[in-house]
Amino acid sequence: MMAESLLPGEAPVSLNEARGWLRLGATVDDAVIAGLVRAATNICEAFIGQWLIVRSGEEEAPFPADRILLVARPVVAVDGVTLLSADGTESPLGAEAYRVTIARDSSACVAVPNPGDAARARIAYRAGMAEGANGIPEAIRQGIVRMTQHLHDARDGAGAGPPAAIAALWQPWRRLTLGSGR
């Protein structure tokens, strides 16, 4: 339902940064390290409850619903709403046919006052803290590097949990919710 993994390309921590932290030179393990950086970034986003680098997402929600609360945060913009009927017919809505509210905490909800006989709504939007890696706070980036190291060290089955320092670095940006709001 929702885009949840990083798009190929820019990540909050570069391969060179991760390789330097791990004290690795140019190596054939670059694909492994890049995968660990993506995994560490996904862990960070799940922990703090926010997407880091702005990217597109899409969600579907059933009717009847007074409002549809988008899962990803911080929402930058809602790009479109499409109604989906039970038989699969899609009807894109004009901007005047739905209402978007982005709260101070950057959560967003979409209201479709007249969904007709639509069974579901598909909402396309963009969310993320920053346009690029340089806009991500250094404490978050440092936590991702340290999580990458932890994942690298644990690749052979070492059972130790992640260091508490990682959670301490990410804690100031953590956003918790009390439910889905749907």
UniProtKB/TrEMBL annotation:
Protein name: Phage gp6-like head-tail connector protein
Biological source species: uncultured Sphingopyxis sp
